């Protein structure tokens, strides 16, 4: 099983910092009427938002981190790596197609956001590896648990979005943190498991004559 290179650790660790830091800075630059619990993260990058470039740049950089992590996550199943890269690409397209001005609707933004959310929810299942030697983050039971938790958070976000609930922004932020943190935890599990796997596969010393 191949190891995760250092730049995969860097990309997976940088993504949460960029996402959370991006919306924190962007929140602070908005008018006092902005409510991060009620309003979505995407509204920070929509047409007409104050300093919208901050959240747009954060979206782009986080998307690049997802793609880099997907390429670097060599111990994972190829399908999972591909889905994670696709999730990053969808995130870049979200940044390229911002929300319309207040009261408007962008079909392209909604489409790519939905695709991205689905890919980032499904990739743990596609990346799983059977067998006792698999890093814990890629074991089937762990992957199912992670995907189920993220799916539950996605359902909460969808309910808030459809119903016009007052916690849309909170739901999206909690979902975003879960999705952006899981690749890091998987990468760390692979790095921790790498020495054990190498020792298990190392040839035994030949017996002395």
Characterise the protein shown here.
The protein starts with 5 loop residues before the first helix and ends in an 8-residue tail after the last helix. Helices cover 68% and strands 0% of the residues. The protein has one domain. Residues 205-209 have low confidence and may be disordered. The chain is an all-alpha fold and 209 residues long.
Instruction: Count up the domains.
Output: 1
Instruction: Give the tally of β-strands.
Output: 0
**Uncertain parts:** 205-209
Radius of gyration: 19 Å
Tell me, rounded to a whole number, the average pLDDT.
91
Number of helices: 6
Helical amount: 55-70%
Structural class of the helix and strand makeup? mainly alpha
Order of helices and strands: HHHHHH
Assembly form of the protein: single chain
User: What spatial form do the alpha-carbon principal axes imply?
Assistant: elongated
Strand content: under 5%
Describe the main β-sheet briefly.
none
How far the N terminus sits from the C terminus, by CA atoms, comes to 33 Å
Which key terms come to mind for this protein?
0% strand; disordered C terminus; 209 residues; elongated; mainly alpha; 68% helix
Helix and strand layout, with pairings?
Blueprint lengths: L5 H24 L22 H21 L5 H19 L10 H21 L12 H24 L4 H34 L8
Gist?
The protein has 209 residues and is mainly alpha-helical. It is built from 6 helices and no strands.
